[in-house]
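Homework help thread (please don't just give me the answer)

Our assignment gives two proteins as sequence + structure token strings and asks us to describe the second one. The first is just a warm-up. Here they are:
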Amino acid sequence: MAERTALIDYGAGNLHSVENALRTVGASVDVTADPDTVRTADRIVLPGVGSFRACAQGLRAIPGLVEAMEERVEVGGAPFLGVCVGMQLLADRGLEHGTTPGLGWIAGEVRAIEQTDPAIKVPHMGWNDVALTAHAGPVLKEGEAYFLHSFHFAAENPAQIAAMTDHGGGLVAAVARDNVLGVQFHPEKSQAYGLALLARFLEWRP
């Protein structure tokens, strides 16, 4: 039976472009907010666009959804991919519009990008390099991806930083541990680079 990828629909993402990109590389996708569907998925993708607070509240507003994700990913070991704010939600907390608890899967917090140089624009928007660390794993590759964000993931554990990018200083481009991967950039907007990443995610057996 074909593997099923659960794409979490919690009202906070460019859901259809992520779905289309996954289908383009051969995924069988269930766009879902149903905890039972999440519990039986082979892989889980969490998208997200907008503020950390709105996304976190949207996710927690669906009864049993966070618990089902934790059960399938943290206990069951299903490969997980968080995209943009979906990656940021892995943090302990976000500091946008006050302090909001995250999922706490990757230690750290999501803070505003500091504009240290007037020539460096915030939000960080457009194509930029993805530079791998020693902890990148098999899904990530060096290349250029499309970014759009005003807040960044300040990860506490260097061993969970999988890739960096430079925008007036280093910003975390990806976090990873075990079966969990989060990317700050948008694979679905990153053309061939992004599609190749999603294809590798579908093949990933952590």
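The one we have to describe:
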Amino acid sequence: MAVKLQWRPVPADEVPDVTNLPPLDYALFLFSTVKFYFGFLSFMIDEESYLRHLYEFYENSSSKAASSRYWYAQYLLVLAFGKAFLTARNPSGTPPGHQYASRAMSLLPDLSGMHEDPLTCIQALSLGAVYLQSIDMRRAAFQHIGQALRGCIIEGIHRHVPEELCGPELSSRCRTIFWVVYMLDREFSALIGAPSSIRDEDISVRLPAEMENSVEHSNLTLHVRLSRLMAQTLTTVYGVGDEFNGTLIRNTQSILHSMAELSHDLTAFLNQNFHGLISRASKMAIRLMLAHHHCCADSAQTILQTLQTLADDDLMGKSTLEFLSDNPNHGNPAAPLRRQELRQLEQILAPLTPKSNPIPLPSMNVNSAAQDDNEFHDLDNVDVEEAFEWDLLGLNSSVSLPPQELLDLADQLDVESIMQSVGGAVG
């Protein structure tokens, strides 16, 4: 971990600390800032309910914090994120707003349960998990989002909540909360290489866009599908089993077909709502494009290009960790840790990684001429320490990977077709 956030759990019968908080107008400003930078994660905060509680809190802080403990935790986390997004540097070297985050984490429930206002508790746990992830406490983030997901299961919102029992507003709210938690659980699980706590076949709640056709809910639906595809890729194509059972190629083909379908839907969504243009101001479109390219290793260049576009217009937000170093030349403290992990992985794989020049693989078309040796590059000659020049990148106007190219690649992986081609050439 690059930083360790510490807190002391506040007993249920103790009134939470409500001192040293910003005035109402600044709290509203921080909330708007968080909404702007959060993008689809802002679905986790019910704006109407949050603002109602906020005004009540500033009328009687102690009473409101005691009676709405989990909402108060949400409020403190919003302050922490807002300060991190806005503050240039904290003189103490700690993340701006970390004191609010520590107080928020101390109010979250332990494993004994979440009896008071479970939906608000799930929202607070999810926001806490996102904050822990932002300061590189990945295991703690995985544990908190797992607790939130288990809360969803206990409350039954992974199943359809009938409108006739609770009304359309609460039914829709339960649906939205579950899918955001689901998406975060899939992503945080992938980051630490752990399986999710719920199987897709155990979920019967509909995606929000099936009922509400707004741009925001369509955006959330696409993010959920992207998270599911990413998890499927990690557990099938990159999963580790006891032995090879011959399913790798079939799994890869299935992933490519799913990516092609999703690429088609993503392009249609962007064309309909953004007229096919990925402008620098279209945060929603850019986030969807980034999430889509995270499913494919060949998209690393597009990810860098898109991140640069966000950074140019200050739409990417500031990393919570970038303020931890007193020396501005040190950069993000998490980066050296990730580089150390990659070097350790390189050492482990060294016996399996030959240092000689790689032998060019034959072309899939046996009748075509062999490619020139200059087209193959030895990765050992690449200087990974060389600084990357952002200015060399130009924004790729491509919205997503062309579906037909993905389908063509899936067809090329068909074992029977390959064997027939080889057999025909030999004959």
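TA reply:
I won't write it for you, but here's a hint about the kind of observation we're looking for: The CA atoms of residues 1 and 338 lie 10 Å apart.
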